[in-house]
Write a structure and sequence with these properties.
With 86 residues, the protein is mainly α. It is built from three helices and no strands.
């Protein structure tokens, strides 16, 4: 399932950053905040996009920079939430 999550997340992120004006290639290990300029308002929008796309609610304790700063960390959050929903 990790592969499906990663593919869907990458597509979501490419579209998300294109919408906020970033048109360069998204590299998986890029820091979404320092490398791509994600700010607090866009962070909240990103969380909503992730929640809607994957049908999850991200727990408050995961709404921190360290959990959403790159593709790997976001995938981990999604996987953990999906596992807890089962």
């Amino acid at each position: 399932m990790d592969g499906d999550i990663r593919i869907t997340l990458r597509s979501l992120l490419v579209a998300f950053f294109r919408d906020i004006g970033y048109f360069e290639e998204l590299i998986e290990n890029m820091d979404l905040f320092s490398d791509l300029g994600l700010d607090s308002m866009n962070f909240l929008s990103l969380v909503v996009c992730v929640e809607e796309t994957f049908g999850i609610t991200v727990p408050d304790e995961k709404l921190e920079y360290e959990y959403f700063n790159n593709v790997d960390h976001i995938c981990t959050v999604i996987e953990e939430v999906l596992l807890n929903q089962e």
